[in-house]
Amino acid sequence: MIRKIAILTSGGDAPGMNAALRVCIRAGLYYGKEMYVIYDGFRGLVEGDIHQVNKDFTQDIINRGGTIIRSARLPEFKEPEVLKKAVDILTDFEIDALIGIGGDGTFRGLNDLAKMGFTCVGIPATIDNDVGSTDETIGFSTALNTICECIDKLKDTSSSHQRCSLVEVMGRHCGDLAMYAALAEGAEGVICVEHPLHEDKLFKKLRKMKAQNKNHAIIIVSENLLDINELAKKVEEETGFTARTEVLGRLQRGGSPTAHDRILAARLGSAAVDLLLNNEGNSKIVGMKNNAVVNYPIEEAVAMKHQPTHGLRDLIDMLQ
Ligand code: F6P
Q1: In 10 A of CB 205, how many CB atoms?
Q2: Whose CA is nearest to atom 5 of ligand 1?
Q3: Which of 8, 86, 202, 267 has a CA 20 to 30 Å removed from the CA of 74?
């Protein structure tokens, strides 16, 4: 029987991780379980930084950005001796199950622990929205709103100077933040894996806008694809627009989670605890598909590829 449950957050922090942590702790306590938190993700696990918590720990965290139990990236968390140490420590603390809140990297770590016989459940939380086993990840909605707030402000100054602004957003290798932001902002261009750069088309459009004396142009570029400063130079040479670049960076990961992310955290967090209690011994990842909470065996979930939102690309092209 599962008596003691530990929770960690891992990978890039995402708004709503605290809300998910809160739900897991409260749901576990509600069912009479002992609840533990692990600081600093898998690194803290290997170091035994594990602490029992009660309901007070969850006070006033639902609206807080970041993760109060901190996060870390530990690339070594795949080496057999590191994994063995993690399992030994969980056994020493008599922890029966582990909940990991994070993205793909976190789920790979949980999968490795599950293969060693330890029961784990994963909750998808990353601003990138790049997890295959869910339609949406905790943190995506907040990061998208942050990007939109920044671009709204940028439009003011961009218009005042009749400039073309190139805005680099995060997403690692997933274009969801870029495409959703392009749609929400009515951007003139978006460049990401799912919507690659066609220079001729883009420059032609910008030349036309310049000739029509348009006030500004916004081009959203996904990270890890190209050098936006080089692209800005080309925009100046080819279109007559003065260009400026903005890399939004980790600003996108901060801030209080949107109501949407808090509710998503509540639905996924409670489902994770339910699974542990009703599905003993089976390691799973929870997610949302078509607005219903679903779960998949971890091994299956980590192999799933994120699919771009149906029709989004065509919609963006139609509206540009
Ligand atoms: O996975 C979240 C994310 O913010 C990605 O969008 C980005 O590529 C990466 O983390 C940056 O990670 P770090 O803050 O560790 O450099």
Answers
A1: 17
A2: 172
A3: 267
